[in-house]
Amino acid sequence: MRMRTAQPSEVSRRWGYGLLLVAILVSYVLSLFSSNAQVVFSIIIVVQMTTVWLALRVSDSHKLAPVAGVALIVLTICLGISVIFGETSGALEKINQWWFVLSTVLYLVAPIVIVRHILRRTEVDLDSLLGVISAYLMIGMSFAFVFKLIGIVQSGPFFGVNGEGTLAQDLFFSFTSLTTVGYGDLVPAGNPGQTLAVSEAMLGQLFLVIVVAKVVTNLTRSSGQTSDDASSDQKESE
Q1: Which residues of 111-131 are buried (b: 16+ CB within 10 A; e: fewer)?
Q2: pLDDT, tens digit, 9 for 90 and up, residues 155-205
Q3: What whole-number distance in Å separates Cα of residue 93 and Cα of residue 99?
Q4: Measured in whole angstroms, how far is the alpha carbon of residue 191 from the centre of its chain?
Q5: Predicted TM-score (pTM) above 0.90
Q6: Which three-class secondary structure state does DSSP give residue 4?
Q7: Is the pLDDT of residue 134 over 60?
Q8: Does residue 65 contact residue 52 with C-beta atoms inside 8 Å?
Q9: Measuring CA to CA, which residue among 170, 120, 97 is closest to residue 7?
Q10: Per the omega criterion (within 30 degrees of 0), is the bond before 192 cis?
């Protein structure tokens, strides 16, 4: 009888990507209902950093996960001190912006780490598929955060006549670009927003064609191999 053993890290995190997917959805929902209140924005940043740390932890990124973990601890302490000692709104806003930049950078790195980890797995299962979905969602959210940062840095409104745009609008525009739906109700007024939007659309299609297709194919093969092994074991027992 043939027995297949999984790696210890795979056993301990068999549903790790499922938990990551839940964390991403929570971060997304909080971002949709974000407001200009600094406390709310601070909570969103903490949730984002937690999601990034979980993504790096599940994908066995031994170099980046400690960095995100330390950053999360420092962020929580800084925001706690700011709230307790009544920092001015301007100082707290500047702290939030810098941490928002850090979380955005890590959000851009996390999907790459996740995909690399999944493609290196010896066995493709449902958790791997959840990991691919998580990476896809993180790509969309990371571009939304980049659009928000561009709107903060550049002089004019990001969406031109439609104004600066809320974080919810940035997420909406990002995912319509990623999925190439492109309703056209929100359009970047100029570069680099327009170039990034085109790049996101191309990346979204390449991700579906290459990464998702490969994982689904490997998942199908893994299921077929399991069935063949079961049939072989049954014949040997007979």
Answers
A1: bebbbebbeebebbbebbbbb
A2: 888 898 888 888 889 999 999 999 999 888 889 988 899 999 999 999 999
A3: 10
A4: 24
A5: no
A6: coil
A7: yes
A8: no
A9: 120
A10: yes
